Amino acid sequence: MKLIITDLDALPCKVEGEYKLIKPTGNIRHCIGCFGCWVKTPGECVIHDGYELTGRDISRCGELILLSRCIYGSLSPFVKNVLDRAISYIHPDFVIRRGEMHHKRRYDNRLNITAYFYGGDITPAERSTAEKLISANSVNYDGTGSVHFIDSPEELEGITL
What is the CB neighbour count within 10 angstroms for residue 148? Predict the structure, then answer.
């Protein structure tokens, strides 16, 4: 399954196979750092606002697709907030991976993270920051990652994810 997290109201492209789409609907609350998703209700955020199962959704996918406006080399506030609320995907314990300390995997799936950053004025420094961010997230999730830059979401029309 593919899990697509986007800040867009509608996808401008087709998606092949089974997928779940997470997009802005209603109000998403911010992670409060309570660790409830790690210890009280593993895999599920204790805040019930429709986004509480995102960690579990990530555990059931093989590909995590992020479609986000590039904001200073990072994800849009909505996409970042969804990922923050999905921290239960990883375990609170640590392991050494690639010579660095990272969170232990909670689930058996291996993620491939594909990020599409859009914005007509993305600077070289912002591109570098975005590439480093997705690379770091991929290592922390014990997966792989790739980054694509486009001027606008309309550039995805005609492609299939």
Answer: 12
